[in-house]
């Protein structure tokens, strides 16, 4: 039967499916299908899907009606909220009995999940990790795949957000082979690894030693270890070693990136693209970041804001945004 589908390359399938699932746009009555190397994901609302994934085409495609699969909601008296990360399901429940009930339903359903984790704290500390309650499975380590890259990580020791997969892909598509890319807060490598796969020489710095260990492992997993340098340090302490080196800088530390702009200017080459992430009130989401960048970079650099991009809603009246900025000496 012909139904509206998002057509996407297979390597981008999981991240695309995740974005559509978060927007509750996948039509579960039909199977996701593959034809001619492309993935076809059935959607309930083509117009809404186009708005969520502007870069992909909506087409009519013959797909198979899905055989009945048991979902967690069908085993409960309500539809539970959960997030998928590899073969783990992440939930956020304060009530221990309700958390246990949801975990049991997830495991009993047809979801390909072996681990269920319940958030036990907010993100905290310098390394931005949180506590987890292990409701099912052996540990908090997972393997996540997005846009053709594979990331091993331990949620108990590193920060990682699968919700930013589409944003990371947006930035990675701008990277050219042989450019010098520097991630100032690299984590397990969700920016560094796809940059290196596109041929860039990359440096990733993080204060979290566990994250750097996973970054090294992920570089090996993805066959780019020869193009990745991983440093466990405060970027402010290593910036002088890479002065005037970076053709591209990533600053994904939204609550305090402005504190590191002096180091960013030191790292920037004569013509550098800066991806600056910020969280600000919806009344002026881009202004504070732009003013901070100009204050740090001018007059040594001319500053051109090439893109003002809203990544997602962060909290009531607060937006997570990105400024793509060109710095020219």
How many separate helices?
10
CATH topology of the largest domain: Rossmann fold
Number of domains: 3
**Quick one: CATH superfamily of the largest domain?**
Vaccinia Virus protein VP39
Could you spell the SSE succession in H and E letters?
A: EHEEHEHEEHEEEEHEHEHEHEHEHEE
Helix-and-strand structural type: alpha/beta
User: How would you state the average pLDDT, rounded?
Assistant: 93
Compute the CA-based radius of gyration: 21 Å
How many beta strands in the DSSP annotation? Answer: 17
Task: Measure the end-to-end span.
Answer: 57 Å
User: So what's the overall shape?
Assistant: globular
Poorly predicted spans: none
Strand order of the largest sheet: 13-12-11-14-15-17-16
Helicity, as a percent range:
25-40%
CATH class of the largest domain: Alpha Beta
CATH architecture of the largest domain: 3-Layer(aba) Sandwich
Hey, roughly how much beta strand do the residues contain? Answer: 25-35%
Q: Main beta sheet, described?
A: 7 strands, mixed
Keywords: Cytoplasm, Methyltransferase, S-adenosyl-L-methionine, Transferase, tRNA processing
Protein name: Class I SAM-dependent methyltransferase family protein
Domain SAM-dependent methyltransferase TRM5/TYW2-type: 82-329
GO molecular function, one term: tRNA methyltransferase activity
């Amino acid at each position: 039967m012909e139904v509206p589908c998002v057509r996407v390359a297979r390597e981008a399938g999981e991240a695309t499916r995740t974005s559509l699932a978060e927007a509750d746009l996948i039509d579960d009555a039909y199977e996701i299908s593959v034809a001619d190397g492309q993935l076809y994901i059935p959607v309930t609302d083509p117009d809404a899907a186009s708005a969520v994934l502007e870069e992909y085409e909506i087409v009519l495609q013959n797909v198979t009606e899905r055989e009945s699969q048991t979902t967690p909601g069908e085993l409960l008296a309500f539809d539970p909220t959960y997030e998928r990360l590899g073969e783990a399901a992440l939930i956020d429940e304060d009530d221990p009995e309700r958390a246990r009930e949801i975990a049991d339903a997830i495991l009993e359903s047809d979801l390909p999940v072996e681990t269920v984790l319940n958030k036990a704290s907010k993100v905290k500390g310098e390394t931005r990790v949180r506590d987890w309650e292990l409701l099912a499975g052996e540990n908090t380590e997972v393997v996540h795949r997005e846009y053709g890259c594979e990331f091993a990580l331990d949620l108990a020791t590193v920060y990682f957000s699968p919700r930013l997969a589409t944003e990371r892909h947006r930035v990675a598509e701008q990277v050219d082979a042989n450019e010098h890319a520097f991630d100032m807060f690299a984590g397990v490598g969700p920016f560094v690894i796809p940059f290196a796969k596109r041929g860039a020489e990359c440096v990733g710095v993080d204060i979290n030693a566990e994250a750097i260990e996973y970054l090294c492992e992920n570089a090996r997993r993805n066959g780019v270890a020869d193009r990745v340098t991983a440093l466990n340090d405060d970027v402010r302490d290593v910036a002088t070693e890479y002065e005037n080196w970076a053709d591209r800088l990533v600053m994904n530390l939204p609550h305090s990136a402005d504190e590191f702009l002096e180091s960013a200017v030191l790292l920037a080459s004569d013509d550098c693209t800066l991806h600056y992430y910020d969280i600000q009130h919806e009344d002026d989401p881009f202004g504070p970041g732009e003013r901070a960048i100009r204050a740090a970079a001018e007059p040594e650099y001319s500053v051109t804001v090439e893109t003002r991009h809203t990544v997602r809603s962060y909290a009531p009246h607060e937006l997570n945004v990105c400024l793509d900025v060109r710095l020219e000496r």
